[in-house]
Amino acid sequence: VGISTVRKGPYDKTCILEPGCHRFIRSQSFIAYRHARLDVVSHICEMVNKKNFIPHDPITGDLLNKVIDGLHKSSQTPKFIKLLIRSE
Prior knowledge:
By secondary structure, the protein is α+β, with helices and mostly antiparallel strands. It has helices at 41-49, 61-73, 79-87, and strands at residues 2-5, 16-17, 29-32.
């Protein structure tokens, strides 16, 4: 999932992140569940090596649980993602 800054206009309010909940979050942000996707590890590594993806510090367990909880609750999470997480 991606993280986007809260701006004027509509956005998914399922999981709001406040500044300071992680070093990366400097302004009020939200999880953009509509962009949730699955990637294979080799693709992620390739994108990091090409500097298209920039790694950051890991998130806390509590924050991870909040993001996962929102994945289940958001009406914008793609259906195939919800089906996958239900089957695990």
